[in-house]
Amino acid sequence: MDRAFFVTTPIYYISGNPHIGHAYTTIAADVLVRTARAAGPAYSLTGTDEHGQKVANAAAAAGKTPQQYVDELAPRWRSLAPTFNAKFDDFIRTTDPRHVKACVAVFEQLRATGDIYLGTYEGWYCTNDETFWPESKLIDGRCPNPECRRAVDWLSEEDWFFKLSAYRDRLIAYFKEHRGFVRPPAVWNEMMATLEGGLDDLSISRTSFDWGIPLPGGVMYVWFDALLNYITATGWHDDPELFARVWPAGVQLIGKEIARFHTIIWPAMLWALGLEPPRLVYAHGWILSDGQKMSKSLGNVFDPFALAETYGADSIRYFLLREAPFGSDFTVSEEKLRTRHNSDLGNDLGNLLRRSLAMLMRYRNGLVPPAAESQLGERFADLGSTVLERVTNLQFREALDAIWELVTALNREIEEEKPWALHKAGLGDRLDAVLYDLCEGLRWLALLLYPFMPVKCAEMWRQLGLPGTPERLWTEELHWGALAANTQTDPGDALFPRIE
Ligand SMILES: [Zn+2]
């Protein structure tokens, strides 16, 4: 069976509500996997992280069992992807029996190999972050996480440990040999410095509460359980055929705040299991509001559901990936969103479709003329491969820049050729050639932009009179002149109605 390009989002911690940062990761993963699909098989996974003390505490405060609590929250998280027109092949919850069973199997296997052993743990523990902190990291005796800074507790308990320290040399060597394994480079540097600073074994069990995957004498540390979702959802334990197709993952998208877990602990866990690390872990930037990272405690969180309602999901998808390079932090504001929506999408793209189809209707009864010689075909011959390369390299903005050159070229063709004047002057062949270019260019745009704006591009495709959806293999579709003569177009409503 064909290998599939496998893309993951982190599983989202279920306590609380989704914010625009979660939508950002979800959208990026979806665009990546849809673009990959234009070249071959791909597979995608998202889900929710549902164990741990924070969930247990929140459930208790709400007067619910943890299971009731997560069952009530899960649908909202599950609706995040469809709200933004994102489609994943699988959604895993860490309370799924398939996940629990596989985690227990991981524990048993690593216990047998000696990678997991029983030891005593003493240290400063932050309940909020579910993290042990070394004394040296504490700030004024409190949790060093700048968003937390809560009091820490001294814990001493018999725990299961993962022999993380044994993998330090191998990690350092791997980082050096695979500089592209962690991106952007700033995150690679930071993680390399962490590795060089030393690596302790990881306590992977907790005994002070019981909301987690059961281990002898306790429950599994929520991060150890959560990281395993990428292989428990893809059949490591129960579906070897699927697992062989997708693992190692092509790209694992994360926020940079969880880089240590995904680039140090996770590869070591995989090696312990005899598996390869993912090809790439990419830590995207933070979305800022008024220059600060958005977080629930700061109260500066955009509600993604409300934004999608106001601007439309495809406009948000476009905005988030066009606004800044993927690895950088950037600021979101409704004004910026409105500008992108009205100017890039409404004027550049939506008007191009509307004007082109209106002229075709006026001069040719809506029927696509026969293909003619065109300079655009030559000029944009490599556009498909450029876009594919940039997106798979996580350069979403740069891919959109390349696509927008075609948008600009088509708008310029209208301005320079003036189809209305060609009609008036009786230059029918020339008019046919221009109208054909416009329709063919729009067909290309629907194909190339489909991963970014699937609903709007499906509508473009329909107005162009084409069957099905633009989810196609680009190698078969992106030949200038492939649009058949006499295709009956069907102009419809404006794609991106103006928002004031
Ligand atoms: Zn903390």
Q: How would you concisely characterize the structure shown here?
A:
The chain has 500 residues and is an alpha/beta fold.
List keywords for this structure.
2 domains, Rossmann fold, seven-stranded parallel sheet, 500 residues, 21 helices, Isoleucyl-tRNA Synthetase, Domain 1
* Ligands present: zinc ion
Sum up the overall morphology in one term.
elongated
Number of strands: 17
Helix/sheet category: alpha/beta
Summarize the structure in words.
Helix 12 crosses helix 13 and helix 16 (383-392) packs antiparallel against helix 17 (396-417). The chain folds into two domains: 5-284, Rossmann fold, CATH 3.40.50; 333-477, Isoleucyl-tRNA Synthetase, Domain 1 (Orthogonal Bundle), CATH 1.10.730. It is of the alpha/beta class. Strand 2, helix 1 and strand 3 form a beta-alpha-beta unit. It contains 21 helices and 17 strands. The strands form four sheets. Strands 1, 2, 3, 4, 8, 13 and 14 form a seven-stranded parallel β-sheet that branches. Strands 6-5-7-9 form a four-stranded antiparallel β-sheet. Strands 10-12-11 form a three-stranded antiparallel β-sheet. Zinc ion (ZN) binds next to loops.
